[in-house]
Design a protein that fits this description.
The chain is an alpha+beta fold. The protein contains three helices and four strands, in the order βαβαββα. It has a four-stranded mixed beta sheet, with helices on one face.
Length: 93
């Protein structure tokens, strides 16, 4: 599974989510962090939304699908459970 995290400098919610994602050991995924301030199209799309987490669906020509935003209070285990649900859904399709 490949995940994309849209973030921006100074966003504490973004930093917190990234830290939790990097602590997950039991799921196999690649995390790409995109700074929305580096591209105008990303900034226009997500300036009021970050952090935004998407999964990339290789079986659907690398379509990027947004995932529900996890609560900032979610711990690593809760975040892992949420991602597991989407990973299982990918395997079932």
């Amino acid at each position: 599974m490949r995940l994309i995290l849209y973030s921006k400098p100074g966003c504490h919610l973004c930093e917190g989510l990234q830290e939790k994602l990097e602590q997950i050991q039991t799921l196999d995924f690649q995390l790409e962090v995109r700074d929305i301030t580096t591209r105008e199209d990303w900034f226009q799309a997500y300036q009021y939304e970050v952090p935004v987490l998407l999964r990339v669906r290789p079986q659907r020509n690398d379509v990027e699908e947004p995932l529900p935003r996890p609560s900032p209070r979610a711990n690593v285990q809760q975040l892992e459970q949420m991602l597991q649900k989407y990973l299982v859904a990918d395997d079932a399709k």
